[in-house]
Amino acid sequence: MSIDIKICGLNTCEALDAALAAGADMVGMVFFPRSPRHLDLATAAKLADRARGRATIVALTVDADDAALAAIVEAVRPDALQLHGTETPARVADIRARFSLPVIKAVGIATQADVARAMAYAEVADRLLLDAKAPPGAALPGGNGLPFDWNLIAGLDLAKPFMLSGGLTPENVDEALRLTHAPAVDVSSGVESAPGVKDPARITAFIRAVRAAAATDHATAAGKPALSSNQTGIAS
Fold it and tell me: Are 163 and 130 in contact (CB under 8 A)?
């Protein structure tokens, strides 16, 4: 199966180039001053121009008002908006209509009730991002490097595609995909050497791990032996 990969929190040309070279489908830029991954509009615009036409450009915001969103859309010209705050379904629908852009709505997951709550956004968002719920007192709504219990969404069948996030790394993404069969994954802190500092080698390793997992799943579904790393062209 094909799995979309989003590398989020990119803030340097080196990290962006690593994500693009490795084949990321989506690149995320964060606009949230409390985040170590926050970008000013000028820097974000330069990175977006570098990525344009090579990957989907996603602008991540947290409870941003219309003025802030308008400034981001004008300067960066993203392909999609990611809403990572406490936006209601009505607010998500309003933003989608107002800016005429696809919207990804992030929902924190810790219990089955959170999974049920996420369903309220399925009709208004273009894609749901299921992330680990931030612990009490956390400064950030996401990017905390924490996974949630993936069994909570095993077998999840949505009318809209969802994206798995929260604590993913090159080392555990294979297991996450095996349990959830997520059609897309999102990573930020799992490919960093320090908060906000992307590691190009880990970005490449993460994307290779996802592609290998996808190839294995496809071979298994077809009733064929899984291909080795040499046969798939993916370095071990």
Answer: yes
Provide the residue type at 130 as one letter: L
pTM of the model: 0.88
CATH superfamily of 4-232: Aldolase class I (3.20.20.70)
Measured in residues, the chain has a length of 236
Mean pLDDT of the chain: 88
Per the CB < 8 A criterion, the answer to whether 118 and 149 are in contact is no
For the chain, how far is it from start to end, CA to CA, in angstroms?
20
- Distance of CA 25 to CAs 7, 95, 103, 219, Å? 8, 23, 16, 22
As beta bridge partners, residue 114 has: none
Helices (H), ranges, the chain: 13-22, 41-51, 66-76, 89-99, 112-118, 173-180, 200-221, 229-232
Catalytic residue IDs: 8, 131
Q: What's phi and psi for 40, nearest 5 deg?
A: -80, 165
Contact 73, 67 (CB under 8 A): no
Domain locations in the chain as residue ranges: 4-232
Strands 80-83 and 56-61, how do they pair?
parallel
Asked if 65 and 97 count as a contact pair (C-beta separation under 8 A), the reply is no
Per residue in 90-139, pLDDT (tens digit) is 999 999 999 999 999 999 999 999 998 998 999 899 999 999 987 655 55
Burial of 100 from C-beta contacts in 10 A (0-12 / 13-18 / 19+): exposed
